Amino acid sequence: MAKHNETEYYQSSESDHAPMHRRHRFSARKYTWRYQLCRLPWLLLIVLGLMLPRMVDGNPAEVERIYSRMIYPVVSGIIAAITSIFPFSLAETLIIIVPVVLVSVLIIRLLKLVFGKLSARHHNRIRFFSFLISLGIFAGVMLNLFYCMWGFNHYRLPASELLKLNSTERSVEQLAAVYEELAKQAAELRAQVDEDDKGIYTIGDHDKAFECVAQAYANLGEQNDLFSSTAYRAKFVRLSEYMSRAGIAGIYIPYTAEMNVNVHQPDLYILSGAAHETAHYMGFAREDEANFFAYYVSLFSDDIALKYSSTMHALINCGNKLYEKDSGLYFEIREQIYTDGMNRDLNEYRMYYAAYEDEPAKQVSDSINDAYLQYNGQDDGIQSYGRMVDLVLAYFESIGFFEPMGFFD
User: Fold this and answer.
1) Which residues contact 164 (CB under 8 A, 6 or more apart)?
2) pTM listed for this prediction
3) How far apart are CA 202 and CA 195, in angstroms?
4) SS3 for 252?
5) Terminus-to-terminus CA distance in the chain, angstroms?
6) Residues forming a β-bridge with 201
7) Rg for the chain (alpha carbons), in Å?
8) pLDDT tens digit string along 119-161?
9) What's the rounded Cα separation, in Å, for the pair 32 and 127?
10) d(CA 271, CA 194)
11) Whose CA is closest to 277, among 228, 219, 231, 226?
């Protein structure tokens, strides 16, 4: 009859309990004031994250050469290759899950602190303080990762310099000429796009439509190595209505290298929005530049829906600037060229915009975005989006558009 080896059994039992004992000792040591005070220096990560942009500001050539051309394409390319496997927006999922988890843990810790047993009050107080420190460290890590994974692109060389465009203030006559030309192009394209049963421009299936944006950037990349990174399809956000409430048409998330687009808005600017966010993925962080590239990339596409959306986006920005300078000339051109289809599309978008204009979430979002842009070198904040007009006019000059008209700066 076999018998257990009692000595070996006892030793094995001791060995199994050793890791558990060590974990218990670490947990006991972790929830002490001394241990928590030793963690406080890690909160300096927040300070470091806020200082990072100041460290590179003023050195655009070095940022361009080292970061935007060498480091960023590798980092974003690896992340995008992984996240592109998911048919849905991984960023949207994380944005929902992470805050819910953090808020839930905070509430639990707070409830235990307030309503916990008196004998455990000291322990619960330390655990609550520990969680707050962990939250601060997490914020610091994410802030530093933001700049390392994308944010330094705010400080690269201007797109006008990279593309050799003469981006300067133009005359009203030049602005009006480009506005008129864009209006003619948009009118011609509008006659070729699909409409829904209300006579409004439609792009149909979003996933299929987004493919044309990726293809356009691929075409552009074959001619300009600034865009040589592999272009991936943008992703639509399932909770897009909440983006509408916040006044957000799209957002690029560096942590997942995903271009997220609000598809709750009318179709008019969905594809130009996808092109805008893809420009961010390509490393162009400034909003006026991303707006310009949303138009510029459409010139390398045969997709009529993309060309119409991007041309209308450029047209409206140019029109807004012309209206400020000469409203009479603006209305004269508009009344002569805009088609019924263009007007229907614009009216649809105006009604959509008006429905969310006074949303509190939009006011908060605009304020945060304005502060963020100003902190990262775009002094005019959310007004910088409209500066795409300078780049559009510079592009038209580069192709000789003004020469037959006798316009000179």
Assistant:
1) 398
2) 0.89
3) 5
4) strand
5) 106
6) 195
7) 27
8) 677 778 888 899 999 999 999 999 999 999 999 999 999 999 9
9) 9
10) 14
11) 231
